[in-house]
Input
Amino acid sequence: MRELLLGLRLLLGSGRGNRARFLLMALGSAIGVSCLAVVLTIPGILAAQDARMAARQPTCARDSHGHCTGIKGAPRELTRTDPLGSRPMTRVFIAVGTKDIEPPPGLMALPRQGEIFLSPRLHEALRREPGLAQLLPGRERGLIGAQGLAHPDELYAYIGVSPHQLRDADVVTVFGEPYPPNRTVEKSTLDIVRFTLTGVVLLPLAVFLSVCARLSAAARVRRLAALRLLGLSTKAVQRVNAAETVAAVLLGAVVGLGIYELVNQMISRAGLPGFKWYPSDGALSLSTVLVCLLGCPALAWFVGRASARRAAANPLAVRRSAVQKPPAMWGLLPLVPGLGVVVGYCVAGATGHAPRETRVSAVLMPLAVVLVGVGLVLTLPLLSQALARSVARSSGSLSLSLAMRRNEAEPGGALRVATGLVLLVYAASLVQGVLIELDQISKHNSPVQIYSVGLDGMTAQQQHALESIRGVRGHAVRMSSWTDLRVDAYQPVLGAVIATCGQLRESVSKVDGCVDGRPVRLLDAVNGYPHDDIKSGTTFRFHFWKGGHRRVQQLKVPERILRYRDWDDIQAMNADVLLPPSFVPAGYRPDGATLVLVSDSDPATVRAVLDGIGGVDPTIAVDPYGINVTALQQIAVVKTLLAIGMVLGLIIGVAAYLVAATDRAMERKPQVTALALLGARPRTLRAAQVAQVVVPLTAGLMLAVVTGKAAESSYLVTGGGAIFWDGKGVPLLLACSLGAVAVAVAGSLPLVGRRIDPELIGRD
Output
C-alpha cells in the first residue's frame, strides 16, 4: 500500500509534463474502453432482440407427450412474412375463439375481427402508402409496444379476422417459445462477426491499451531506477510504476464507460443503416462493467510491472548513455505458426483440397489470424532494426542516415507510433474476406436475378412502371395454356412467354436468329429438351380477360425452333414457346399470367429493384427467386456491425498514432535540441523525423498487406464458398496504406520546432 501511495504522490508532484502524460494516458484509455464496451454489448443487443421475438411467438401449451392442450375454443393464427420494399413485413392474422388467452407482449388485448395493431414504423408506412390497407384490412386500434417488437424499425402487425377467413391456421393458446423462429443474426453468422471483431477491434485495442500504459517509458524508467538506487526493493519499484499506470487506466475506464452511455443514447435513437435497437438493449451489463473496470486496470498492472522490471533489476542499464539491447528473436514465435496455418490453407485451396467447415478449421482459423496479428506487432522492431542497419550503410543522405541510426539504436520507438496503423491495414483485409463470404451467402451464383409478379388485379400503368424500374434489364410475361380437366385429366400444358426479341436478348445469356412478329418454339441449347407431349401443329388455348369479358385465343405449336442459352443457375425463360406481343388482343390481359423482371444479381441492384417494386405498389406480391428477404435483412445487420467494427478500428488506430506521436514528440525534444545546437538545420531534422517513421512504417504496411491478403484467402478457403482469391481489394488496401503513410508524415513534421528550450539544454 505504501508503494501505491508513493506512486500517486510522485504522479501529482512530478511537474506539468508528467501530469500531462497522465491525462494523455487516461484519455487514451477512455477511448479504448468505450470501444471495448461497444464490442461487448453487441451480443447483448442481439440477444435482447431475439428474446422479444421468442416471447411473442404464437404456440400452444403441450403435455408430456408433446400434444397441444386446451385447444377447445382457443384462437387460431396465421403468420405471413412479405417483402415491403427490401424489408420484411410480418402480419399475424388472429381469429379469436370462445376461450380467452393472454395477449402477446406489446398488446393489451387480442385484436377482434376488423381490428389491427401496428408497429410504429408500419403505422407510418400505412399513412404514406394508403394502398397498404389491402394487406392490412381493418380499423387501427392501437400501436404495438416496444416489448413486442424486436427493434424500433420492425414492420409488424396483428390483424383480427373471422375464423372462416383463415385456412391452414394453427391453434394458439400461449405466446412465447424458448427460441425465436428466425434470429436477428444466425449463430453461424454471429460467429463470423465475433471472429472479425476480434481481429478488427480487440487485437488493436489490446495493443492500444498497452501503448497508453507505456507512455513516456524512457523518463519513467529512469525515475524508477533512481528510486531503486535510493533503496526500494525490486517489487516495490514495480508496484510504484504499476500504481501510476493503473490510476490512469482506471480513470480512463470510468470516463470511457460514461462516453459509451452517451453514445448509446444518441446513436440508438438515431439508428444505423440496417440496424436499430432500443437504448435499454445497449445498456451496460454487469459483466461489461466488470471487464472494463477490472480487466483493463489488470492489464495495465501487468504492463506497468513488466515495463519496470528492467529498471528494478539493473538501474544503471537504463541511464541515458546506456545502449539498448537489440529486440529478441522470440518476437517471431507467434508469426511463424500463424503464417504456417494460413499458408497451409491457401495451398489446400489452390490444389483443390479445401476443407469444408470442419471443427478443426473453426478453431485453427481464428487462432491463426490472432497469431499473425500478434506476430506482426512483435516482428516490427526486428524488421525496423534490420531495415535501418541496411539503409544506413548504403545511404549517402544525412537526413536518412540520422533517421536510420536512431531506428537502429531504438528500433521500438518509431514502430510504437506506427503499430496501430499497421494493424488497421491488416484488419481491413479480414473485413474484405468476410464481406466476400457474406456476398456469396446472400446471393446465388447466377449473374442475374428474376422477380415474379402476378398480373391479376394490376393495371397497365403499374405493369409499365414495373418494367421501367431502374436496374431492370429485361422483362417478359409468362403464362400457361388453359386446360379443361373435365375433358382430359392428362391434357398437356403449354408454357408461353410474351416478349419481343430485344426483351428476350436482355433476359437470357445468348440468343441468335430471333425474328419479331412470329411465334417460335423455345429450346435451351444446354439445359433444355423437347417435350414429347408438345408436338408441332398441336393446338392450345389461352384465355384473356377484359373487365368481365373472356376471350379465347388458339395457338398451333410452330415448327420453327429458336435455340437460346439460359443462365446456369436460374431459368429466366422457362417456357415452351415465344409469342409476340401482338398475340395478346388489344385491351385484354392474360389469365393467370406473371410478369418476370430480370436484373443483375449484385445485392445493391436487388435491393434497388425490390424498393422500386414497393414504390409502384406496396401491396404487390413479389417472389424474388432464391431471395429470402429476412436473410437480406440479416446480412444488412451483419454488414452494419462490420462497419461499426471498422469505424472502431479506425478510431483505435488513429488514436494510438496520435497518443504515441504526442508522447514521442515529448521524449524526442532533448535529442532534437541537441542536434539543433550541433548545427543541424530544421529542414534536415524534419526530413530525419519523417524518414524515421515512414521507412519502417512502409515496410510494416507492406508486410500487413501481404499477411492480410493471405489471411483473407485462407479464411475464404475455410468458408466453403466459390471465391478463394480476390484481387479487387488490393488497390483499396494500397490506398489505405498510402493514407496511413500520409498521416504519419503529417504527424512527424511538428516534432521539430524553431524554439530551443534552455531546460532541455541543461537536462542533457
The first strand starts at residue 58 and ends at 59. The chain has a mean pLDDT of 77.
